What we know:
Blueprint: H1 3-10, H2 26-32, E1 46-52, E2 55-61, H3 63-76, H4 82-93
Antiparallel strand pairs: 1-2
Zinc ion (ZN) binds at residues 37, 39-40, 42, 61-62, 64-65.
Amino acid sequence: MDDADLLLHLGVTAAALDPAPERLRPADAEHRIGLPCAACGLPGYATRIVRLVDGCRWLDTCREHMIASATFQAARRPRGDILTDLREAAAEAGVALTVVIYDEAG
Ligand SMILES: [Zn+2]
């Protein structure tokens, strides 16, 4: 999914977003919670980094626009690609991902 498409969907202008580091660090993200939602200006509930042609930017969102973002992304992602979701989430959070598959039969 292209983050520029997400911004277009939310009606957000990339130039209005603060520059962000390449990788999300939890301490940085914590400081952004409560900042105005990029889409509507309500207090922020979540934040994430969007990767655009000219660099990374913070996308702070209220609860409604966080859900709208997740729904938009989920609708554009191929079905059954849970590992891709997990890899992206782990990379964004800056943590290692270990997948353990448990087989009840054996
Ligand atoms: Zn909002």
